[in-house]
Structures are given as C-alpha cells and as structure tokens.
Design a protein that fits this description.
Length: about 350
C-alpha cells in the first residue's frame, strides 16, 4: 500500500517496523473510502506489563498523499479520528506521533490542523531533527549552478579522477558499502545511533520497489566510498555515507552525491533530505552537506495525546529517565573524546 502514497518513507515500511521494533509490536491502520485506500499508518505498541496501558508510537506518519491525486483535506482529519478511536479510547494508550513534516511546509500545516486535539511536545535541543532539504524540481544545470563554489570545484576534481560508480539495490552492493563503513568507523572512532547491519537486514526484507539505493565509488577497481539513500514516494532520505582509508584523496563522496541527485531526478523524486546535521558535534559533515545548497530546516515537534492517566504517567516517567540517562553519559563521552587523537578526513 505504501507505493500508493507520495509521502511514503522507509520508517513506515513493514521491513523497518519488523527489524527495528519487532513484528509482534506493530499495529497497522488502513483508512478506506468505498474500498479505496486513502490513508495508512504503522505504529509501534509498547506495553511494559500485560495490563491495558502503554504507548503507541507513530514515526513519520500517517500517510495520506495519494500519488497522482489532489490532496483530500478530509483524509488526514479522518485519520486523526481513527487513531484517537483505536489507540486512545479503545486501547487506552498514550499516543506519540513524530510526523513526516518540516516546519513551515504545507504538510506540517495540514497535520497540525488535523491533529489539533494533540499536544505539541517540547523537544530537547538534542532531539530536534535538523537537516538540509534539497528541492530537486529545477533542472540539473540549475541544481549544479546552485552548489557552493568550493563544493562544485571538488566535484569537478572527482570527475577527473577516473573513478567508477557502481549502482544497485541488492545485498552485494550493501555488503560492499558496509566494508567501507566499518573501515571508516574504525578510523574515526565515532559513536553513532545508526546501525548499518540493521539497515542491511531491512534491505533484505524490503520489497523491490522500496529497497534502499546504494552507490559504490571505485578507484581502479578498489571501493573507496559509498552512499545509501532511501527513495520512496516523491522524496528521498540520505541514510548512510562512508569513505575508506584509500579513498580520502579521491573525493568520491562528491561524485557519489551528484550521481545520486541525477538518479533521483530520473526517478521523479522532488525533494532530498540530506539526513540530519549537527554543526557543533559534527562540523565536517555539516559543511559538506551545506555545500549542496539545500534549505536548513527542522522537523516539527512530536504530538501526543492520552486519555489514560496511567499510560501518560508511565510514558512521561520513562522519557524523563531517558533524558537523565543521556545527560549522565555526556561527561563520560567528552572525557573519552579528549583521550582520542583527532580524526582526519
């Protein structure tokens, strides 16, 4: 059903849900009108005990933008009512939604109107998803002209290095990427919440039309850089990128990003989410992504609702404990960082 929607994304796929959360913990809601699918949502259900309370978590949904059809404003409203009826009233769960919508966008406006009964949560600064969003609707010539001059010069340099780009969405391409990725992690010694092996299991489980697209850059037959992007509906998300020890001077990352943009354009993708930025924590990646001249934008805040005092109290207590735990780790992480030599690109 996801292939019916322009706002489809990898976080709403069955493969992501099953691998990341476990198939038994999922609940799916489908909204139909006269037998025609109008909206869908996949939620994670968390029940800490056999008793009837807990949380329903909806990530990057629900979906309501039918491909090739004008937006029906009634659909998101009906989805909101269906979610309230099923998870708030019938199951007595605390419902938390992280919508697939960026601040100031039409999608955010529609979502906030439809889910007006939900409370907007206040995010911790570290929890805000900030990214560069590229509009891919202009021509390739115009997109290239918009690149930062230094970024464009490095792209020209990579194009002169006789590099070869391998493209695919199978297991072999993903395993080749992982070899580069783990080599980079060993070299840089950084911590990350991204699990490349977990995404590999998702790749095996995803249907053909929903698989992540992998690009591998080779220098004289040796893989030197890799890129993994999920393209669904009318948008794409940059998930993973890596450069091997041997590829530090080849500038393959620039060639891969431009090759991916060309591929996305051919596929009819209209926007490209460059996958999260942290100017202070990871300035190198920030400046690399900024060179693509996307719009610096943030995802709107999570929305939550509950009609159960028990579910609400448990979830809020759990989130508070999680924030306290993260805060306690920060000094330890900083101390460990000071003992490590600075990573070089």
């Amino acid at each position: 059903m996801l292939d019916l929607f322009d706002d489809a994304n990898i976080y709403q796929t069955a493969a992501y849900g099953a691998v990341h959360w476990g198939g038994r913990n999922l609940s799916r809601l489908v909204l139909k009108r006269d037998g025609d699918v109008m909206g869908v949502a996949q939620l994670r259900i968390v029940r800490p005990t056999p008793l009837k309370f807990g949380m329903a978590y909806l990530r990057w949904g629900p979906l309501w933008e039918r491909r090739g059809q004008p937006l029906d404003s009634e659909v998101p409203i009906r989805l909101a009512v269906a979610i309230e009826d099923e998870y708030l009233k019938a199951r007595k769960l605390f419902v938390r939604i992280l919508p697939n919508a960026f601040a100031g966008s039409k999608r955010a406006e529609v979502f906030q109107s439809a889910f007006s009964k939900f409370t907007r949560e206040t995010n911790e600064p570290s929890d805000i998803y900030r990214t560069f969003l590229m509009d891919l609707t202009p021509s390739l010539e115009e997109l290239r002209s918009r690149l930062d001059p230094k970024w464009r010069n490095k792209l020209k340099g990579s194009e002169k290095n006789n590099l070869t780009v391998i493209s695919g969405h199978g297991g072999d391409e993903y395993r080749a990427f992982c070899e580069i990725y783990f080599q980079m992690r060993k070299r840089k010694g950084f911590d990350t919440t991204v699990d490349a092996e977990e995404f590999g299991r998702m790749q095996e489980a995803l249907t053909e039309s929903q698989r992540m697209h992998v690009l591998i850059c080779q220098d004289r037959g040796v893989p030197v850089a890799g890129l993994v992007v999920s393209a669904m509906g009318d948008s794409a998300i940059y998930l993973l990128g890596a450069t091997s020890d041997a590829g530090l001077n080849a500038k393959g990352a620039y060639l891969l990003q431009w090759t991916m943009i060309c591929w996305l354009k051919e596929r009819g993708i209209r926007s490209y989410d460059l996958g999260g930025i942290d100017p202070e924590g990871n300035p190198g990646v920030y400046y690399f992504k900024r060179g693509l001249s996307g719009v610096d934008i943030c995802q709107i805040e999570p929305h939550a609702a509950s009609e159960s005092a028990v579910s609400s109290g448990l979830v809020k207590a759990g989130l508070a404990m999680q924030r306290t735990f993260r805060a306690s780790l920060r000094p330890l992480n900083f101390a460990r960082f000071l003992k490590q030599p600075a990573a070089t690109n």
